[in-house]
Amino acid sequence: MSAGPYGPDQGFAGPPLPPMPSSPPPAPPDALRAVAVALLNLSGLGLGYAALRRRLPMVLCWLATGVLLFAVLPADADGAPVGVVVGYGVFLLLAAVHGGLLGLRTRLARPGNAPLAALLGVLLLAVPAGGALWYQDAHDEAVEQALLDRLHQADRLVAKSGRQSFTAVSADYRTALDVYRDLAVEHSRSRAARQVPDHMRTYYETVGSAYAHRDYCAAVAPLTYLRSVPRTMPKERLGSLARWPDDRLADSLYECGARRLAAGETDWVTRFGDLLDTFPGSGPAAKVVPAVDAAVSRAGKAVGGGEPCAAVGRLRDLNTRIDELATSSGDAAAGLAKAAGRAGKSGDAGEYSCGVDQYKDGDFDAARKTMEQFVSDNKHDARRARARKIAIAAEVAQTLPAAGRKLPGTASGGSISVTVKNDSPDDITVLYTGPVTGSFTLKGCGSCTSYPLATTLIVGFKPCNDSGRNYPRRTIELPAGTTYFVHKPHGAGSATPASDTARLRSGYLYTECAYTTRTLGSGY
Predict the structure, then answer these.
(1) What's the CA gap between 88 and 128, in Å, rounded?
(2) How far is Cα 110 from Cα 34, in angstroms, rounded to an integer?
(3) Which of 15-24, 144-153, 408-417 has the lowest mean pLDDT?
(4) Which of 58, 160, 230, 322 could serve as 242's disulfide partner, Cβ 3.0–4.6 Å?
(5) What are 427-478's pLDDT values in tens digits?
(6) pLDDT digits (tens, 9 = 90+) for 74-112
(7) What is the domain range of residue 481?
């Protein structure tokens, strides 16, 4: 007999008790509870799983949120990786759905009240929403800082370029301008874009700094470039800068052209041409004609100086280049044409002084050509007669250098007769200089022939000695002194002029005879 908990066993028997279940039985389905768990999981903290005491999926939610934070923080201008954000969003939706299915038949540990849990889930949605808003603000600020960094990098590039010539760094200036333009157009609402106008003023002043340093020729290229900027940069970002280069460029074109003109360089025509074409009504354009006139006057005065030939060359060059400029200079054309005419006339007149200088320097070939040109160009100049004599004397001096020791005068005639005969089949020109300078031409002797060279070497050889021939001749009157003769044959091919130095004395009659040899040219 045994005893039960209430006393001795009275012998009653009944069915055995069922075993205890391994887990609580499922709760009745509750949609609100399911929604509450889903909302709690949408916070990204796994709180729905925590309410159901499901630790492993809760930890997975924490890990997913940690990966997201690691990937997107700190916020930068590039923004969050799209793949990470999309993946995290999909994960949250799956966690919400999974948690909702679990919560449908599982009681909440805490809070045990489903409506309270749902309210808490709604309130906790502020966590991801607030995080997204905070991240967007941080991203926007990162973008602003990145744009400001681009602005400052462009500023540093401009500052660095300002220490070098425009030609060497023009590409860097264009790179900086591309940055300013992009900020102003593509990011017009940014803080960096609002600063662009002030930075553009610095940009203009740096690019055009050669003008501030009075380096006008170097300033032309950068100022011309700055005039092209308004074609690509919004006008509201430039304001008065759009016209900033105009006056400076006009002034630089004039000053550069004037300096090159005064220095005798050639590209002044380009500078003045650009000025008259681009800024025809400007003050600098009005100074072009006076500057050209002054250059012509200076060159004209230099003809009387120590380098008359250089002055004549300068006048010739001015005449050509001023004519070139006048063809496309608008209102200035008449004044420039007049200046070109003065330069041409002064150059023609200056040929005489140039020829004299060449003669005195012993450059007889150049002196002859210059004086012949002077005679041709100046039909009414009072110096024309003497210029012709200087040309003759220069040609004589090319064969007899002693003839060029003195500049010939304008004297003519004398008391000593000199007869020149032509024992040559060719016409000859007789040139002479000394106390008197002149020239004349003798016709060829029709019955005469060239002498063999061997004949001219025989002792006693005497040309012009055939009494049966009527030699072409001419008699001239010359004063006493040394006279230099040159007989220049015509049509004798490579024949060289023959020459003679005659020392004339009163009381004598002199004869000159011209002849030619068959192999060595002419003789006398």
Answers:
(1) 12
(2) 14
(3) 15-24
(4) 230
(5) 999 999 999 999 999 999 988 888 888 888 888 788 898 888 889 999 999 9
(6) 756 555 677 777 887 787 888 778 877 877 777 777 666
(7) 411-523
Count of domains forming the chain:
3
Q: What confidence tier does 205 reach under pLDDT thresholds 50, 70, 90?
A: very high
Residue 462 sits in a domain whose CATH number is 2.60.40
pTM above 0.90, yes or no: no
Q: For residue 244, what are the CA distances in angstroms to 55, 157, 178, 236, 275?
A: 72, 22, 19, 14, 16
Q: Are residues 487 and 363 in the same domain?
A: no
Same domain, 429 and 380: no
For the record, the structure tokens of 511 come out as 């004869």
Pair 2, 82: CB distance under 8 Å: no
Can you list the pairs that 24-33 forms with residues at least 24 positions away whose Cβ atoms lie under 8 Å?
24/107, 26/105, 26/106, 27/105, 27/106, 27/107, 28/105, 29/104, 29/105, 30/103, 30/104, 30/105, 30/114, 31/104, 32/114, 32/115, 32/118, 33/103, 33/104, 33/106, 33/107, 33/108, 33/114, 33/117
| Residue in this structure with the two tokens 């020392």, named with its chain if needed | 503
Minimum mean pLDDT range among 76-80, 104-108, 159-163, 484-488: 76-80
CB-CB contact of 163 with 170 (8 Å)? no
Q: What percent of the chain has pLDDT over 90?
A: 50
Q: Which own/partner contact pairs does 383-389 have at CB distance under 8 Å and 24+ positions apart?
A: 383/352, 385/410, 386/410, 387/352, 387/355, 389/433, 389/437, 389/438
Stated length of the chain: 524
Model confidence pLDDT, tens digit, residues 311-343: 999 999 999 999 999 987 778 899 999 999 999
Strands 416-423 and 510-516: parallel
